[in-house]
Please model this.
Amino acid sequence: MLRIDCPICGLRDETEFGYGGDATVVRPAVVETDVEKWLAYVFLRDNPRGPHREYWHHTQGCRQWLVVERDTLTHEIGIVALARNARSKGVGR
Amino acid sequence: MAEYSFFSLVAHALSGHRHWPRAWRDATPKPAYDVVIVGAGGHGLATAYYLAKEHGIANVAVLEKGWLGGGNTGRNTTIIRSNYMIPGNTRFYERSLRLWEELSRDLNYNVMFSQRGQLNLCHSPAQMDAARWRGNVMRANGIDAELLSRTAVRRMVPHLDYSETARFPIHGALWQGRAGTARHDAVAWGYARGADRQSVDIIQRCEVTGFLFNGGRVVGVETTRGPIRAQKIGLAVAGHTGQLAAKAGLRLPLETHVLQAFVSESLKPMLDTVISYGAAHFYISQSDHGGLIFGGDLDGYNSYAQRGGLPIVEHTLASAKALMPCISRLRVLRQWAGVMDMTMDGSPIICKSPVDGLYINGGWCYGGFKATPASGWCFAWTLAKDEPHPDNAEFTLDRFRVGRQIDEKGMGPTPNAH
Model:
């Protein structure tokens, strides 16, 4: 059982959360016409074996989107931040 | 190498089974090969076997970082079926099933392929319609399929929950009688022995750490046992496909996820077929040992840890109980997990990579075991002829760029489909 330290609700079980995938992926601007950029956004992933920055949605708690640093090899969880703050501080790339 | 037969069995029984030769050599790496396959699981070993057998390319090494068959080959629920309906998948999986039907004889090794049939249960009229559609596509492709009514399913497996209170009532099932199970380790061992008998080198405890380049072309691999050069390198490393491809500068449309499986304590024979639950993601069969083997969903987050978490244990056991209430007091004996390379459309990749000299076999998602023979057969073809066989022609990397995804589940770009 993963336990995620939600900045609003505190330490909670993974079953309260929904997984939102890789948080380093950034959607191109809607006016972007380069196929390669959309290919990368929709399909391609770094898929790291180690530290991974990822979205979790606290569906059964505060309903906030979080950016969680988690190691994909050990499942160890590092920094947890609100996604809106993480993005503005550049944590989510 | 001894041919396995009734007579060799009797002869060795008379000498107390003390003189059986090794089934394959413990090879040391040569400096160069025609083809190097990375990964000695079922897919890698099958590829080497068919390279030698079908294409006469026997100067081949199969490199394995751990031990033979120690990855996902030994971490699955051994189900074999060919009930696919999207062009690109249908004929490929049927090729695989036909190869399975001849495999024990072909390898002179009993892979214990048991065509006990598979029931895909339907729990609503809409699921019955979808099953009828799938069954018709299968039959149009010459694959056996039969739509069974609730009564027919009940006659076949009377101990499912047919009560008024069943959370998901059983409306019927799509039945594939030629589906079944096989002994997973025997598949790896049989292919290893078959490849070795054609002088393929199987090199264990030899981890690939990088690639050797000449210009833009891959001309070999760096390993923990020194550099090995080869004209062609084929990757068959399941959950680590993305990791190795990244060393050649490739970014792939897949994520690595963890999938658990379970086996119960042994019972007298009580389930003589394979059942897939249509309401939750759950599948179950009984092994020759008597244990019930079953599995469910991915844990749901990126992971390279070969162990799963408790929420999925609970979810899977709840599915088991909802489907077969009679097993609710059974104890789980073992639980294990493998790491899957989940592609963005749920279908595999068998193709030349954009890097010259490098070929990729991966993206097997939930379904790598059943694909083992055809995967090896088609990958060998692709390596030998530098072009895909028609049966794996759709399994390209480029399909994501040009919008030709093979999305069997119809759920869009997510790395958790079937």
